[in-house]
Amino acid sequence: MDAEIEDQCGMAMHVPDLKDVYDTPLAFGCIGTYKSGDRAILSMDFEYDPNEHRGGSRLTFVVENVGIFEKMRRGKDSTFVFDGVEKRPRLSAGAAFGESNCGAATNVTVSPIQGSNWQGWIAEEKFARVRTRCRPFKEFTSNYRCIHVMIGNRTMTAQLTGVCLLRRRESDLENGLSYDIFYEMLKSLKFKSD
User: Fold this and answer.
1) Contact at 8 Å (CB) between 192 and 7?
2) Residue 20 dihedral angles phi and psi, to the nearest 5°
3) What's the mean pLDDT when you consider all of the chain?
4) Contact partners, residue 95, CB within 8 Å, separation at least 6
5) CA distances from 81 to 68, 78, 88 (A)
6) Number of other CB atoms surrounding residue 169 within 10 Å
7) Pick from 75, 87, 64, 94: which is nearest to 159 by CA?
8) In the chain, how many domains are there?
9) How many CA atoms lie within 13 A of 37 on its CB side?
10) How much is the pLDDT for 49?
11) pLDDT tens digit string along 54-76?
12) The domain containing residue 39 runs over which residues?
């Protein structure tokens, strides 16, 4: 990532050497700043061919200068909240896809994740096989993993809500960004402050 973007958005991560149909490499951009109590938006378009709407969409992280547990405690705009009974994180209703164009999500799995100076969770929503005449959008089929991410430490939080990534590992963007490649990017992420 570009050093100016890292400073503005408060985090850095490895960006794979992948290109779209026009031979443009993947890159993050940043809008706003996390420093003054505001939010920064770290975003990357990974659509392979915008003219044909092929190969995915975009990754958008909302970065804030607030600790992850404080963000969850407040509840407002938090991707995850604590389950009142067991004190385990669960996907907030406001962050969930909840349903595809052909029906409701059948299961949400929340898994912990940890990086060099952060911890958090990934939620994956699964959708039922369609038995009617409805044809689901490709993102809501078993070929994709629809996920939500919330990571942070005691001073910073980053959230990515609602992106569907290829289940199968692919080394290009023609069909979308692979979950495995995204996960490698995420594991390389480091916040500017601990």
Assistant:
1) yes
2) -85, -175
3) 86
4) 78, 79, 80, 123, 148, 159, 161, 162
5) 10, 7, 8
6) 10
7) 64
8) 1
9) 0
10) 65
11) 545 889 999 999 999 999 988 78
12) 3-191
